[in-house]
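Batch job 17 of 40 flagged for manual review because the log was empty.
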Amino acid sequence: MNAVLHYIYDPLCGWCYGAEPLVWAASKVDGLALRLHAGGLWPQPTRLPDHTRRYIAQADARVGQMSGQPYGDGYLNGLLLDADLVLESRPVVAAVLAAQSLDAGKALSMLRGIQHAHYEQGKHVVREDVLREVAASIGLDGAAFGKAVASRASS
């Protein structure tokens, strides 16, 4: 009997980042199929007001405490404080779907790469150059990835 774990995620969700080690471990279990379903936490490009940044910092501290996931200085004292930070789920979800279309086994690696680039390294993961960098780090061809993202973004 095969079981299916349906994982509803958003690459820019701190709680999803907190769950990342569990999801990664589940992906390695024989007889358990993992199905990724993207959410849309940030459906439109959003700049965060200061009070929202403080709320997110408090929530991330709690996620880190409960999960053990590291939140890097580049995120906590850089990206999260950056007035130019724009959060939008569409580009990062399109990147995960593009990775999946190129190699089904790379979708979770892409999600994981985006999360670590965002929450540990403090990178602007909604930017195309950063997503290409993550794609290359998991072994995807840059040109093929770019075309796959473009087809996802237009649909």
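Reviewer: the log was empty due to a logging misconfiguration, but the result itself is present. Strands lie at 3-9, 32-38. Unflagging and moving on to job 18.
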